[in-house]
């Protein structure tokens, strides 16, 4: 069969290839042979010999099919006259989920408020809860098992007190920051969060455009719903991007991704090290997985006997053998600065420095991996107690639970170079790019107000004297307690 782009095929031609040994589909009037991909994407078989455009658009970003399939898979163009007159029973019939309050006991429809009426991260979360599909909400908002760490992440900020200075000229305030040598308009960035297209058709593209207008840095998720090149192109010229990396069990795919990132001008690699396996996120498991796939990792969500957890099902490609010895390989392959994301104790922070990383991201995956681990702000205090020299050896970032400008200021006062913000920016996508920009402005305004009321005019002035951590200091392990290998009981013979 010809692969001539202008080769016209009839609907009858398409229907002749409708089984698991010979499977063709039409997407946006282009016909493809996807037989070889049925093993990894069995759900496609239900569209064999049919127009699958609607199902494709609900799952994939535009252009993915052309990037993924080899040229020989393309068979031709579906006759447009037949497309117009296609019988209803042969057209795509995927149900569109109605967006209501998400509460089965309520019959009231929800009216999304105008964007200007939202003045806090909680407002964005409320909108997301009431407008996202039940599965998208469960995927974004869920955390591991009993949500203990998820709660601690934000609550610990409330237990750290600010100690303002007064009678200072605070007419002009500067909160710009350099992050890995890249200029940022504020000391925070968008943390990697998967499948942003579940919240808005533009997904990661809207995040990139919002960062462009607001002067922020986006860490692109390894499980983004758009191809890496599309996300980078959505930003302005020379806009800095970082890439999150889950090392693939097929190392050749990771090599290709790292080389592609360098070619596209990505400025740093954030290697996620705290999720060799995804945590048990029960809210996500209870609802059947929507048919989604990542444009970058190729991971696909489906359902199995354990449930419909999108995080668990899409994380099956992650290499469980990843160790410190792989850091030099990632550094050499990418040729970019490497940040270790997911450090949760001083011992591993020191280990990361030994391997020459440029940054350490204190993170517990937003409470989504192992529940009851300590909040990252306690890890930040642990570094001060056990290895304070590390703050001069690399940049330190904090991720998880940041919802207010005061949270940002407290993290900076305790030595963080910047903080990562994930879920709130996903929720802001309910309004697309404008939502991303509006949330950024809320954080900036709160930070500026907090700095003025604390008596500082530049983020470089933020230091330990600005905070009182007495309420949580007793939770931070001492150097003796930290060496758990030395005092753990000996195994019985």
UniProtKB/TrEMBL annotation:
Subcellular localization, per the record?
Answer: Mitochondrion intermembrane space
Record-linked PROSITE patterns: CYTOCHROME_B5_2, FMN_HYDROXY_ACID_DH_2
The EC number(s) given in the record are 1.1.2.3
Q: Does the keyword Oxidoreductase apply?
A: yes
Which top-level enzyme class is recorded in the Swiss-Prot or TrEMBL entry? oxidoreductase
- What sequence ranges are listed for the domain FMN hydroxy acid dehydrogenase? 113-472
User: What is its quaternary makeup?
Assistant: Homotetramer.
Similarity section:
In the N-terminal section; belongs to the cytochrome b5 family.
Protein name stated in the entry: L-lactate dehydrogenase (cytochrome)
Q: Which organism is it from?
A: Alectoria fallacina
